[in-house]
Automatic annotation (TrEMBL):
The keyword Zinc-finger does not apply. Keywords: Membrane, Signal, Transmembrane, Transmembrane helix. GO terms for molecular function: phosphoric diester hydrolase activity. InterPro entries: HAT_RTT109-like (IPR051236), PLC-like_Pdiesterase_TIM-brl (IPR017946). This is Altered inheritance of mitochondria protein 6. One of its GO terms (biological process) is lipid metabolic process. It comes from Lachancea nothofagi CBS 11611. The keyword Membrane applies.
């Protein structure tokens, strides 16, 4: 209800459901307490209380395309809730706040117990709040979720890919705060092929704090569990974007180790199975060849296994005998084959690979020449004819004027589906 202000006073709101006589009594009651014991007045107040209680009860129902679930009431002063730890800003403003405030005063004086980084650790503590394990199991309140804290009022950008996302100060979370719907993680087999560590170079891996589970799949599972409260497993699942819960998040897994088969088996069994079991993963129905979209879509890139039987767990009826395939391969945009139509949903190539057979392969400060654009377009058109989205990597990013020119040419001249970029803030201001 919007209240109109007149001469410094708020106009009184009288429930329409009250009788005219009762409404007059409410007005009279608000002016004076002399008649507060009047029977009619008591009846009016009682009716108001009933209406208020009913409105509050209705407001706690969480409708998630399934059976409505009555959530626990979040007490205003209860420190053991997400709401208590919600500072009320989201998106890139939240990132800016933590960059400026997270290490203020005595925070920098204490260097003990730093896991990933003080910035990352403080940010994660804020997102987690003080929710106890028992509350995680019984509370269904999406408004107090991590997704609400991160992406409420954030417009989703579906045509940008967060390049080298794992290198960012806040892997995955920074991209989500900008509304970026495509991210990537380089993974390495470590500890006798028992874990997948995330990093660009084997020499600087930290499996304890920077694993695929700690940076990506674990947080994803927690976030999705908070907003998918329905009891029917067949109900549509909500994703990681508050303003667009139907939008999938593309997660590229870049295989870096030579043993691609062991990497894949570990990925499926130890890192993705929980997401699969909860129905959060996009999959291909092997029999119908239909793609069923869900909150997370996995793309394999790098040195991934190319044998379809390996992808299906060496089963004719799919991984875990589900009749489904839960991963898609990153098809080579410059060397597409018919088989990629059933294995892939995205095709990628470097700019140099696409220009390899062109008469000109040197990008000037003016961007791609008309001849170069003409040379690249057939690759993109073929991918689109196969219903594959496209991405070009290895595109120059300096000087800034050239970067902006190439962004424009990719998006508008070549109709590339994902812009591969490191600068999330700048790209979020353009698209």
């Amino acid at each position: 209800m919007h209240h109109k202000e007149r001469r410094g006073k708020i106009k009184q709101y009288i429930p329409r459901s009250l009788k005219y006589e009762d409404s007059k009594q409410v007005q009279h009651f608000s002016r004076s307490c002399d008649h507060c014991a009047h029977p009619t007045m008591i009846r009016s107040v009682f009716v108001c209380l009933i209406l208020t209680a009913a409105a509050f009860w209705a407001g706690t129902l969480v409708n998630v395309r399934g059976t409505p679930i009555l959530s626990k009431v979040v007490l205003e002063n209860n420190p053991d809730t997400h709401e208590f730890n919600n500072i009320g800003i989201t998106g890139y403003r939240l990132l800016d706040f933590f960059e400026r405030k997270a290490f203020a005063n005595s925070a920098l004086d204490n260097s003990d117990n730093v896991n990933v980084s003080r910035y990352y650790d403080e940010f994660m503590r804020y997102l987690a709040g003080h929710v106890t394990e028992s509350q995680k199991e019984t509370t269904c309140f999406p408004e107090g979720s991590i997704i609400s804290k991160l992406t409420r009022d954030v417009n989703v950008i579906t045509n940008v890919h967060s390049h080298n996302d794992y290198w960012r100060n806040l892997p995955m979370f920074e991209a989500l705060c900008y509304g970026i719907a495509s991210i990537e993680a380089d993974v390495w087999l470590v500890n006798n092929n028992s874990e997948l560590a995330v990093g660009h170079n084997r020499a600087f891996l930290n499996p304890l704090e920077r694993s695929l589970n700690s940076l990506y799949t674990g947080p994803l599972l927690n976030m999705l569990n908070e907003v998918n409260c329905h009891q029917n497993e067949r109900d549509h699942k909500y994703g990681v974007f508050y303003n667009s819960p139907e939008t999938t998040l593309y997660l590229y897994i870049d295989f870096k180790s030579e043993d691609s088969k062991s990497t894949y088996e570990l990925l499926i069994n130890n890192y993705l199975k929980a997401l699969i079991d909860m129905g959060y993963m996009t999959f291909l129905d092997i029999e119908s060849r239909e793609i069923v979209w869900n909150p997370v879509t996995i793309i394999l890139t790098g040195d991934y296994p190319t044998d379809v039987r390996v992808l299906d767990g060496n089963n004719d009826d799919g991984i875990f005998h589900t009749g489904q395939r839960f991963v898609f391969v990153d098809a080579p945009l410059h060397q597409l084959k018919d088989e990629h139509a059933s294995l892939s949903i995205v095709a990628s190539a470097s700019l140099s690979q696409l220009l390899e057979d062109c008469t000109s392969s040197e990008v000037t400060l003016d961007g791609l020449s008309p001849e170069e654009l003409h040379c690249i377009k057939p690759f993109v058109e073929k991918a689109h004819s196969m219903k594959l989205k496209t991405r070009i990597w290895g595109v120059p990013t300096w000087p800034n004027k050239l970067k902006m020119r190439l962004w424009d040419q990719q998006a508008n001249d070549l109709m590339i589906d994902f812009l591969n970029t490191d600068d999330l803030f700048e790209v979020s201001q353009v698209f």
